[in-house]
Structures are given as C-alpha cells and as structure tokens.
Design brief:
Layout: H1 2-12, H2 34-43, H3 47-53, H4 91-96, H5 100-119, E1 132-133, H6 157-172, E2 182-188, E3 201-202, H7 206-213, H8 215-223, E4 228-231, E5 235-236, E6 239-240, H9 245-255, E7 261-264, H10 268-276, H11 283-293, H12 300-311, H13 317-333, H14 356-369, E8 371-375, E9 389-393, H15 415-423, E10 428-432, H16 445-454, E11 458-464, H17 485-495, E12 499-504, H18 512-517, E13 520-523, H19 531-539, H20 573-576, E14 594-601, E15 605-606, E16 611-620, E17 626-636, E18 647-656, E19 661-669, E20 675-677, E21 682-684, E22 688-697, E23 700-709
Parallel strand pairs: 1-2, 2-4, 3-5, 4-7, 9-10, 9-11, 11-12, 12-13, 15-23
Antiparallel strand pairs: 5-6, 8-13, 14-16, 16-19, 17-18, 17-22, 20-21, 22-23
Helix pairs in contact: 2-13, 3-12, 3-13, 5-6, 5-14, 6-8, 10-11, 11-12, 14-19, 15-19, 16-17
Length: 710
Amino acid sequence: MKALQIAAALAVLTVAPLQSQGGTPVYLDPSQAAERRIADLISRMTLEEKAAQLNHLSSRNDRLHIPAWGGWNQTLHGVWSKQPTTLFPTAIGMAATWDPLLIKTITDAMGDEARALYNIAADGPRSKHGLVYRSPVINISRDPRWGRIQECFGEDPHLAGRITVAYVQGLQGSNPKYLKVAATLKHFAVNNVETDRHSLSARVPERILMEYWLPHWKAGIVEGRAQSVMASYNELNGVPNIANHYLLTDVLRGLWNFDGFVVSDLGGVKSSLIQGSKITDKIEVAVARAIEAGCDLDDNFYEESLPGAVRSGLVSEAVVNQALTRVLRVAFRLGAFDPLEMVPFSKTGPEAIGSEAHRQLALKTALESMVLLRNQNGFLPLDKGKLKSVAVIGPQADKFETGNYFGAKPRIVSPVDGIRAKLGPGVQVEYSPGCDILEPAKAGEIEQAAELARKSDVAILFLGTNLKVEAEGRDRKSLDLPGSQEQLLEAVYKANPRTVAIVMSGGPVSVKWASHNIPAILAAWYPGEEAGTALASVLFGEYNPAGRLPYTVYDSVDQIPPQDEYDITKGFTYLYFAGKPQFAFGHGLSYTAFRYSGLKLSARSIAPDGSVAVSVDVQNTGARSGDEVVQLYVHDVEASVKRPSKELRGFERITLKPKEKKTVSFALPATALAFYDEKTKKFVVEPGAFDVMVGSSSDDIRLKGTLEVK
C-alpha cells in the first residue's frame, strides 16, 4: 500500500502546468490546495532550477516568481543577525527554568524578531534573513564533556521533550494556516561529541536508541510539528546519518509521519560522506546517496551536482521531485507564495526587534534560570542595609560570556554593573578580575583580588567557562574550573569567608572544594543581556531563585564511562549513575521551604493501556514567596531488563505565597512505564509493581507510592 501511495504521489509531480481561472498559474493561486500548487510549480521547473531550490540559501527565481524565502540562520537564544536583537540566556539556561510556558513565550518573541528581520530584508549571518531557523538543538547531554551543552536542554529525554515542544510551538506560531517561521530540530541523531564528529560512529543498542536517544525527537515532530530536521555529521552504528535511510525515512517519516524536510548539517555531504566516512570520492555519488536516503536540502553540493547525478543515472528525477515537494511544502506554509495581505506575520515591523517587552522577557528568563546550588545557614540573600563595601571578583564579573550563535550584541548589563546599580552610591563596590578564564593568572593578580576581598564586607566571585573552553568543535577534558580560577576561589575565601561563588557556564563545572567550604553557590549559565540585573536581584533577595539543574554535576570525569560509550546503562546521567553526584539532576534550593503531603493515586492498579492520576499537596512553610518545581519520577521495581533507578515523568513549576498550599496533579499513563522490546520492535509495559515518587529533585524524593500494572 505504501509503495502505491508513493508511486501515486510521484505521478502527480509529472503533470503538465495548470492554469486557474483568469490565467493565473495554479501555484500562485491561494485558493488551490497546497499539494496541487506544489505539483504545478515543480512541473514548470527545469532540473537545474529544481537543484537550485534544494540549496539551503533558497535563491530567488525571477522567472517563476520564487522569493528567497528560506535562508540560513539560528535563533538559539536570540536571532543571529548583523544588527542587535534580544539576547536571552543560552538554551541550557532556558532548560534550567523547568518552565515550558515561559520557553514558548520566549520563542514566540524570537519568532517575531525573525519575521520582522525578514520583512525588512535585513542581512543575516550568510544571506538576507530567511524564514527557516536552525534551532533548537535538542541533542541530549549524555556526556558532561560535550562542548555544545550550552545549546541543548539537558540530559533527560522527558525534560528535553517538553522544552522542545514548547520551543517549536512558540517559534512557529499558532496560526492555523501560516507558520511564523520554520523550526529545525538538530542534530539528528545521537550527536553529542565534537571530537572527530565528521567521522565517528556512535554505537548504540536499539533499545537504548528508542528509550533514551529518540523520545524527545518524536515529541518535537509529533507534538511540536517541527517543519525541518537537520541530519548530523556522525554515523549511527556504522551508517552516516546524512545518508541513513533508517533514520531519515523509516523512523522519521515511517514511524512519526514527518512531512517537512531534512537538511544536511553545513557541508555535510562532502565532509561526512567523502572526507569523513569515505563511502565515495565522487560528489555526484554522495549527493545521490544522501537525497535517496531522505536528506532533502543541502548547501551548494545539491545545486551543483544533482543535475549531473540525475543525467548519469545515479538518482532519478522523481526522487529530486519528492525532496523538492517536502521543501516547498514548508515554503507554502510560510506564505512565501501568497499575497502579503493574506499572511498575518508579514505585518510584523522592526519595532519588535530588541523591544523593551522582549528585554523584560530576557530578564524574567534569567531570573527563572538561576539555580541556588548551596546556601549554608541561609547565607543568601545578602542584606543590602548591612553592606558598606562589596568586592566583585572574577573573570566573568565584567565581560562575561554571552554564548555562541549570536551576532551583534545589544546593551548588556554586566554583573558588576548590575550590583552597583542595585546597591546605589551608598555602598562601595570595587572590582578585580583576579585571573583570566583560561590562561594562568599573571603575577600578583590573585593576591590583589584576595586583598580586595579581605577589606570588603562580602566577596562575590564570578567564575566559569567561555567559548575557548566549551563550544562547537571543542569538547572538554576536565570538569574542573579552567585556568587559575580554583586558586582564585580558595584565595578569596581564605581572605574573606563571607564569599559567594557564581558559576557561569554551559556544561557542568565541578566545584568540589567550594561545595564543602563556600557558604553559597549559584549556577547562572550565560544569562543574556540582563545578566547583571538578574544576578543582583537574586543576590539581594528581590527575587527568590527556583531554577533546577537540567543535568548531573559530577565530581570529575573519573566517575563516568569513556566518551565513546553511548550505552547510558553503563553509568551515564542520573538514570544509571550509581555514584554520589556533586549536585543531582533536578537540584535547586530556595530562600523559603516547601512541605509535601497527601500523595494520592487515583488507582492502585491499572491495565497496560490504562492511566492513573497522581496528585500531591505542596505548601510554602516559609516567610517568603517562592517557586517550587514539583517533580514526578517512576521506577520499575522488578523489570526483565536493566531499567533506570528513577525516570522523570512529569514536572510543574508553581508559585506559592507564604503558608499557601496548592495541589499539583499529573497524568501518568501506563505507556510512561514502558521499555522498548527489541524482539517485537515495540514499547511494552510489563506487569508488576512500579514506584511512583514525587519530590523537589531526583535525590530529594519527599513522597512515594506503589502502582501495580496487571
């Protein structure tokens, strides 16, 4: 049946050009069905014109009135542009909010800025701004050494899936007919190592692939309806992903019914198939292999080599037409071929770019992302009324890292400027860098910083990493603070024990000594344009932090398997890590306290296709308003295969006033208890007992019940 459907679809693409009433070509008639318009347009194109439209820069075709609609751009934490746009916290910071509704609001704002830039024909990083955005990065951070953790949503598939769906929905908009912009999920799949990324082969058991590496992708496609997917450079079990029929066709389109297009990672046809995997030394063979496997869009290689590949019989023109159909489907959904007055997003003007409302949203995001890791004896918040002098120290205090894939910077509030503004002229705030992020400290630098700390009421240390430490193309070898920062930390504390350490990074940073000595530690990520305002608000108690870690912080890489081990059951992530983490997945403290009570399950036993409601009462028992992130975990008590010690299956961020109590409810379907059976190629739910756990983090479970599957 599927073969007949494909044949019928391809037959449609060979019909002669059609005219609507009045002589208008069908493809330019908005009253016609989209698939009919696409088929009509393709029927009018030469082979060279088809190949040109499979170039990701989406060149204009004046003969056929095809605009340059696609383009090549990023919106990881703000639109990458040659003019200032709103700079939000990096993606891992967004994930630390554990707030999908906020993420959707953020990406809705970024989508507005992206549309506005397209509408005014502004310059992007490589061409005029288009409407296809290569975001979000949803690769999962199995390994803490990975250099691109700043771009992703953490180590857990459920958390990453919820953030992904919200991100895509906000970016693409909610109009029933038109897309605001098109989101691209990347990099598909099992991609989280930068070293040798063009040639490495990730070896993953099928069960682990389905249970850990793919669920969030499925969520982004099936629920989020992302319009594009990027094939990664690496191989999966010996097959290059850019030419992996199993991934790009069997899974993506067969299992998940994806109807958008697949694009190669930049230069991937050559760098992966010719230079990396070396499956051929001929570019025509490479493009044929990629497009036949299901990769629809490329850079210049398709445009230059596809016509020759077709004429030499390496690939049929029907396959080219199929790829072009998928690409143009997104173009029509974006309204690229319709009159401007029909497309509501064409009215978005330049006033949306870097607006004050978006700046306030960047501040809100930074505030929600802050994770209070340690707060001994309520050291934070600091009492402004009792401070006369403050030492602001560290390489991230003034010119901090803003994160990759971002262009022209807007007005940025640095941590030291934010602290000065918050404290006012009555408090002396002095700054000393102490050392560089990566390079060894110069003579006397650490001593000078320590002396400043000694004479001040409190020392606030800003430490962390930058793009020279962790970035695309660059993995870390160690989780420790780089350069001389550990020496700076210990010297400042010795000079003044009233010290706060703030870690600004993408991936997890081990601060083992600090976690036993420094009274307060805050994880602040790369917090965007309102960094200083947000940090000062948290430090001085105007905002009560409630962010949660989206990954595990280990003491060192000695606690985890080698980087080329992709089977997470061997000891990666909170799911299978058997040791004691420095800070656990889901961890985050508050300036107030919360009591959990009244755990209820609507049923004590369910069928394999059933569902149960889980509810719990949460009360703020402190004197300060605050947010709590209520987390639901499950555990298969006696499974026939190795299963996680606990798995996140629900979460909700709530706000409670002092003494206020709320009931938080989760729907827990039996399918959330399933594992993948390699024999039947299906997810199955085994009969037996399951622990149902609710708490404030993966290692702070407050209440537990038992559910039986019959």
